[in-house]
Amino acid sequence: MAFAKKQCYFTQNNIKHVDYKDLELLKKFLGPQGNIMARKRSGVSSKYQRKLAEAVKRARYMGLLPYIAR
Question: In a 10 Å sphere around its CB, with 0-12 CB exposed, 13-18 middle and 19+ buried, how is residue 39 labelled?
Fold first, then answer.
């Protein structure tokens, strides 16, 4: 049973910069406990996964996103 490979969300929507202030975008890639989703699960390319992780960590540090969700 072969699955179609997921298309990267950022290349699909022509997003060049992942902004830490764009909380709606970042929340799409967080799990129910507030953890960053894995690449295999989200389908994001490795280039944008690194940018996404950096943006989420910055947003957490600035107090825009929680470290854990309860």
Answer: middle
